[in-house]
Every structure is written in structure tokens, then in C-alpha cells.
Amino acid sequence: MLFLNKSEIQKLGQNIIQTSIEKAYEIMLSKDYHMPDRMHTSDGQNSLLLMPCFSGQYFSTKLVSVFPEAVKHGQSVVNGVMVLFDNISGQPLAIMDGAAITAQRTGAVGGLGVKFLTSEKIKTAGILGAGVQGFSQARYLLFNRRIETLYLYDVNLEMAGKMIEKLKQEFFGIDYVITKTAAELVEKSRLIIAATISHTPLFNAESGALRGKTFISIGSYRPDMQEFPDSVIEAADAVFVDTLFAVDESGDIATPLKKQAAIREKIKEFSSLFEKNTYVENSTIFFKSVGMGLFDLTVSSAIYDMALKKKIGQIIDF
Amino acid sequence: MLFLNKSEIQKLGQNIIQTSIEKAYEIMLSKDYHMPDRMHTSDGQNSLLLMPCFSGQYFSTKLVSVFPEAVKHGQSVVNGVMVLFDNISGQPLAIMDGAAITAQRTGAVGGLGVKFLTSEKIKTAGILGAGVQGFSQARYLLFNRRIETLYLYDVNLEMAGKMIEKLKQEFFGIDYVITKTAAELVEKSRLIIAATISHTPLFNAESGALRGKTFISIGSYRPDMQEFPDSVIEAADAVFVDTLFAVDESGDIATPLKKQAAIREKIKEFSSLFEKNTYVENSTIFFKSVGMGLFDLTVSSAIYDMALKKKIGQIIDF
């Protein structure tokens, strides 16, 4: 059995990860997969998510633990284990760091949103949230677009500073600017990506001030969470979701939808862009991702194949 | 992170495993655990079981794949991965061979049935089924009782022969006898343990012929499976289940219960024996186990603690 830790996963590069997310959308279109609803169990305030998915040569299950108090012990709140199995024999093939897989694939889901739903010419972008996911969103944004000024906002200034230091080591020749408010970031950016655990919108804005911009929401994976004000989805010419589960699972769609049923008509699956790219330059776009096991499956499958080829990882006697 | 494979798990001995199952029953009595219903997903004829459980210092999830066609590729039908996590930080601590954990803990559940529900003086016992589970049942039976003649029945004579060869290497001074029929085995044994995947009862017998014997059913984990004829549960003075889920999950209880509602009154939780041992010598007993995540948790926790102490296993850089 092959074991891959965080740094081994990161070695494999962004291209392979993003290509795997494209493959996941193609599999969605072909319907050649089996993915039960995400399973969830809570023990007090701690949660465990169980995300199985079957398709083609492999099947996988990602186990993600969310322990809010872990931070008090100086440890990450989100941890996880990714298990990849052979889909013919049922045998386990690989164990991977689940948190690293999540960060990479979620970054690439955002990156693909940038690739399909912004103009190639955009020069400004902003990231709301300087956590693990915010950093990963920034990496995949900069992988897809030649940004001149990258704005960053986080309530925690120290974390924002650290994130910029890390980005500078990998992406050069970019002006990194920490804004004082989320509203300032939105005003200055053509593309806004939010990766927070906010329960209330991060800014207020009239629809008019949002026109021509692309908004990507990566946080708000529960109905009681919301990153963008209702005006974003109201202003949007088109709304995309990575999976239709997002409509119920995320407060960024469920909450405005409760008030205005007509919003539902704007909502399309992101995978539809692979049949026909309907993006219109300078239109207002909202893309909401909640993630799914199929992403984890295609990403971990590609990582496994590549790791074997490049002889990366630790082989364990199972 | 610690990684433990099959042979490392087997090294740790039967006592530690059986003591962990006793601990699981004590935890059940104390109610100090969180165990959601076993989760299950099927992709065609292949299945994946997901069994999380939280209690005390650790929580765990066992993933078990059941791929019936794997045998055609010369591989085991049942495979699995056991993941043990820290219950304070949510961090994964250990990965273990899930099939080995299942075999050991299921053997010990049967062994504890033998310990509590048979006379210390029994000299004869029979095992129905010479698969992985049948072998494990035999090991824990012989760990608990000084059996003089062990009967074994399996439709596959070659497998029965191989199982006896393996048992002979570990348990000496025992007459091992392969019977021609399941009925012959039942007739000659004071204790009968079935570990098969049978969908129909393995033998027919009048209630009178079953009196004074102890029956343990380890297979029939689905309502469409049944190992023992209805006459077993009818003849039984007492019926024990490892968990009340067994009443609905196993055809060995669900099927006769449909015909005679009064059977329900006989059913007691095995854990009740830890409050008061109600076993009466020479009575007729039926014990049905379907297993549960709590067993996997206490067994893998004890294995983890012991492995760290004895420096067994492979440490992986997570």
C-alpha cells in the first residue's frame, strides 16, 4: 500500500490536480459514477464527514474530522484521511493526507472557476479569508491568471501577512495588498473569491456596484453560513454550482432563494460549461462550490498514478 | 502516524482483543459513547460499509469493502481499513488492516459468548463454516474452553481441511473432526457456532434435539440471511444479541420474529450479562451477533496502545 503525506502531495504540482477536477466534471456529465449523499455524524461539537465515491478503476472514501476546539491545543481544526481502493478487487491501494487533498482539490475547483468564468485579461483579484483554503484559492487563481494586484482581507491581520509571505515565495512580480475592509477589496477587484467560515455576509453592496465582476464562494458549506450578500446572486447574470447539492447545503444560495424563488432559474451546473462554454465577458457571475467526493476520487486517483510513476511516497507492507 | 498490518495485529494475542470486547459491553452499559447507525452504500453488487464510533480518548471509522467478484481475481472478497483518531484534536493516529481487525474482534465477540453462555465443562463444540470468520471463531472458542473434540462442517471440504491444519499448529491435543452434514455436527456438539453467508438454514432439527445446547450465529448480517432454523430460537430459553440492531438486521431473528411476535420477549442485550450473569447451566441459549463500530473502536484503541508500548508497527511521517 502507498502512503502519501502532505509534502509528497504538494510535490505533484497544480496542473495534475486541476486536470483531475476537469475530469470529475466530465464524469459528472457522463453520469458514469456512484456517489451517495455526503454522510455526516456529530459527537457534541465535533463532526466527522464521510465522503465515498465510485467511478472507473478506483473508488475512494475521504474521512474529514472537524474539531473546533483543536485550535486550543495548537492543532488544526480540520484533519482527514483519504483512502483509495481498487474498484475491481475492493482492496485498499493508498492512504493520503485528507486535509492536503481537500486543500488542493478545493483550490483547483476555484481555479477552474477562474479559468471558465473570468476574462483572461483580468489584472485584479481579491481573496477573502487567509486560512488554508484562502491560500489554496490564491495559488490556483495565480496559476490560471496573470494578476497584477492581489488583494487580501482577513479579520486576522497576522494571518493575512503570513499568507502573503508564503505566496511571495512561489508567485513573483505581483503587488500583494491587504485591504482594511472586505468592501474595499470587492470594490477594487474584478474577481472575488471567498474562503471563510462566516455565518453572515462579509460586506454590503448595491447590485450596481457588483456588475461585471466574478464572485466565487468556497466557504458556506452549511445552510446557516453565508459569505456574500444577497445582492451578489441578485446581480448575477449567471449562477453556477459545482453540484446541485449546493442549492440546499449552502446559505449563499439557500438563504436568498427562500426570499426570491426566481433565483433558481439562473442556477446551472458548472459541468454544463464543458458541453458549451456560456461565459460572456464582462457579465456578472456567481459560482458556488460545496465540494463532493467525486473531486476527491479523481484527484487522489491521479495523484496515486503519478506517485507510482515518479516513485513518490512510502510503500507500506499491508 | 502508526501503521499496523495483519501480522502485526495478530502478534498482540487473543487476551487483549477479548478484554477490549468486554470493555465495549461495559461502555454500552455506561452509554458513554456515540455510534451512528452503520452506513452502507452499494455500487452494483459491490458494497462499502462505513462504521464510525466515538468514545473516550479515541474515535474510529472502519471502512469495509465487500466485492463478491474479487475471488475470481484470487483476492479476498472482504477488505478494509481501520482509522483511529484522537478524540480531542481530531487528528488521525493510526491506520490498521480492517479485515484483520474484523476477524479478531468478531472472533472475540464469539469467544465472549462462549465464556458467558456455556458451561466450563463442555468437551464438544462445532463450527459451521471454514472461512476467515469460522477460523477466528474456532481460535477464540479454543482460547475459552478445553474442548476435546472440535467438529467442523463446510460445503468446501478442501477449505475445512486447511482450516484444521492451521488450527493444529496453534491448538494441540484436540480431536478435529470434519462432519458430513451440518445436522451431524449439531447432534454431536454442545456448542454450535455458525459463521457462514448462508441465506437458508444450514440444517433442520426439532426443538427437542436442540435442548441444552448453545448456538452462536456470527453470519446472517442481513435480513435475507439465516444460518439456524426457526426451531433454534423457539427452543431457546434465552436469546442474546450483541446490539439490538440485530433484531432487524439479521434474518436469524427477523424471520422467526415475523412468524411469532412472542420471541421478542426472550431477547436480551449481551451487555446485560455484565450487570448480572443470568446464564443457567444446561439451558438452551441462542446468541446472535451482527457486530458494531464500538467493538472496532475498543479493539483498535487497545491494539494502538499496546503497539506503541511494544514498539510494534510502522511509524509513517504524516
Explain what you see.
The structure is a homodimer of 318-residue chains. Chain A is an alpha/beta fold and 318 residues long. Helices cover 36% and strands 24% of the residues of chain A. Chain A has ten helices and 15 strands. An eight-stranded parallel sheet of chain A has the order 9-8-7-10-11-14-12-13, with helices on both faces. Chain A has a seven-stranded mixed sheet with strand order 2-3-4-5-6-1-15. In chain A, helix 2 (14-30) packs across helix 10. Chain A is globular and about 60 Å long. The mean pLDDT of chain A is 96. At the A-B interface, strand 2, strand 3, strand 4, strand 5 and strand 6 of A face strand 2, strand 3, strand 4, strand 5 and strand 6 of B.
**Helix count from the secondary structure assignment of chain A:** 10
Q: Helix/strand/pairing class of chain A, anyone?
A: alpha/beta
Could you describe the largest sheet of chain A, including whether it forms a barrel?
Answer: 8 strands, parallel
How many discrete domains of chain A? 2
Oligomer: homodimer
Fourth CATH level, the homologous superfamily of the largest domain in chain A:
NAD(P)-binding Rossmann-like Domain
Mean pLDDT of chain A, nearest integer? 96
Work out the largest interface and the residue count of each chain.
A-B, 44 and 44 residues
Q: Would you report the number of β strands of chain A?
A: 15
Bin the strand percentage of chain A: 15-25%
Report the uncertain regions of chain A: none
Write down the overall geometry of chain A: globular
The appropriate CATH architecture of the largest domain in chain A is 3-Layer(aba) Sandwich
SSE order of chain A, as H and E? EHHEEEEEHEHEHEHEEHEHHEEHE
- The span between the termini of chain A is 6 Å
CATH fold naming of the largest domain in chain A: Rossmann fold
Helical residue percent band of chain A:
25-40%
Biggest β-sheet: strands ordered side by side in the sheet of chain A = 9-8-7-10-11-14-12-13
How large, in whole angstroms, is the Cα Rg of chain A? Answer: 19 Å
